[in-house]
Design goal:
alpha/beta, 6 helices, 30% helix, 29% strand
């Protein structure tokens, strides 16, 4: 935890003092091993980053006086549309994409996505938010991404994707593509990443018909959790 993300209900006065308990408190106490008087990096969710000086510490709670003074890192100008992965992989991808600065994530259905994945508790709003927070804490960021669920492929592509991709570089990652993924892109990007096993030909052609360029990362076939950060880093 490189940053302690704070929320409005953490404050116990006029915005200068916070009280922590639960996961964040246990992490700070056991991993950071803080003492009264120590300073920690804190950030207000959706706001500025600053420091918190520990004023109270016992076995149940930690209190800090906080001051905010700097902006979070700039968002990555990438909209990530991701075929819904297996639940355990989804958690890792959400956290890693968030830590890299993605602020809009769309989870969509495709032919090779098991329908049972859409019933997973991992798609619960609270569980998704937990992974996003872990990503922000890692990257010293405070701006939560939005996550949208699109359980039907054709309506998503025909009704939503074209509009959200307007005025962006449109890419779909596909290992059988002829073109390598571009690097150091200057403008905004809409990036589509398929499931394990890839998108089927119909889905690829549907995306190409909308102006998406099919690109690859080389001869190696990567897991989704590896491919996503590799693509984002290259872009």
């Amino acid at each position: 935890m490189n940053l302690i993300l704070l929320f409005s209900d953490d404050f116990i006065d006029d915005g200068k003092c916070v009280r922590l308990s639960g996961r964040r408190f246990e992490h700070v106490r056991k991993v950071h091993r803080v003492a009264v008087g120590d300073e920690l990096c804190v950030g207000l969710c959706g706001g500025l980053i600053g420091t918190g000086r520990v004023t109270v510490l016992n076995e149940k709670v930690l209190e800090m006086n906080v001051a905010f003074r700097s902006y979070p890192p700039l968002p990555l100008p990438v909209t990530l549309a991701l075929a819904l992965p297996r639940p355990i992989m989804l958690k890792r991808v959400l956290a890693s994409a968030t830590s890299m600065g993605v602020k809009r994530i769309i989870l969509f259905h495709s032919h090779r996505v098991e329908k049972s994945f859409w019933k997973s508790p991992a798609l619960n709003e609270a569980h998704i938010k937990e992974q996003l927070i872990l990503g922000l804490e890692q990257a010293k960021d405070t701006l939560l991404p939005t996550v949208e669920l699109k359980p039907l492929f054709k309506p998503f592509v025909e009704d939503d994707l074209l509009a959200m991709a307007k005025d962006t570089l449109c890419l779909v990652a596909h290992p059988e593509s002829a073109d390598p993924c571009p690097s150091n892109v200057a403008g905004p990007v809409t990036l589509v990443v398929g499931p394990e096993g890839g998108l089927i030909p119909y889905e690829i052609e549907k995306l190409r018909s909308l102006g998406f360029l099919s690109v690859h990362l080389g001869k190696r076939i990567l897991r989704v959790e590896t491919a996503v950060p590799a693509l984002l880093s290259k872009l």
